[in-house]
Specification:
Blueprint: H1 11-19, H2 23-39, H3 44-63, H4 70-87, H5 89-112, H6 116-133, H7 138-161, H8 166-178, H9 182-207
């Protein structure tokens, strides 16, 4: 476990968690993911604040785990992290984009090496690079972060809905569990598409041309 506060799930545990959820959860995640992929940069402040609020709730709950104060601590963490991120949005985007970079680089290295130290170094490098870029290419980092987060939500939603079709699930599960490239490519592909779509949308808005 890399972090005691925000433990990073394995692919298998993430898939198992999604398959145990009600299909409505998968549908909501799919819908939100598509919104982020298409127009995430337009609503990034709300997305960032909600993301930090959820992270704060997880940290707060972990700090008081097993006690009566866990719920109160989770709520306090959500309010604190969400409020601070809204007030200090530029720095919040630096951390948010850095986290996206850490996930992308660290996750890629983890697919080719089982050494946790190497993965941590790669993740730290990805975090530092994207955090620094956010002060120079703010909107581009926002687009990358929302596209990656949207792709994660979309793939999670598809995984959650997979059990609705026995035939689809019979093909989806072995690929997701046994293929080392299936899940990474399933996340990478919509991320790249989302980046392209959002960059085009941003350029159209800045030039004053109607979309389409």
């Amino acid at each position: 476990m890399i972090s005691p506060f925000l433990p990073i799930p394995t692919t298998a545990s993430w898939l198992e968690w999604m398959w145990r959820r009600d299909p409505s959860v998968g549908l909501c995640m799919l819908a939100v993911g598509l919104v982020l992929l298409f127009v995430g940069w337009r609503v990034f402040k709300f997305v960032a604040a909600i993301t930090f609020a959820l992270a704060g709730a997880c940290i707060g709950a972990q700090l008081a785990a097993g006690t009566w104060a866990a719920t109160v601590s989770a709520i306090a963490g959500a309010i604190a992290f969400g409020g601070i991120s809204w007030r200090l949005m530029r720095y919040a985007v630096a951390v948010w984009g850095g986290a996206a970079g850490a996930f992308a680089v660290g996750g890629t290295v983890a697919k080719f090496s089982s050494e946790e130290a190497l993965m941590l170094v790669a993740a730290a490098a990805g975090f530092a690079a994207m955090a620094a870029l956010s002060f120079v290419m703010f909107r581009n980092v926002v687009i990358f972060a929302t596209s990656l987060q949207g792709a994660l939500l979309m793939v999670s939603g598809v995984a959650g809905l997979a059990r609705l079709s026995d035939s689809f699930f019979a093909h989806f599960r072995p690929l997701a569990e046994n293929s080392p490239l299936f899940v990474p490519l399933a996340i990478l592909t919509p991320t790249v598409i989302g980046v392209c779509l959002q960059l085009a949308d941003m350029q159209q808005k800045e030039s004053g041309q109607p979309a389409g």
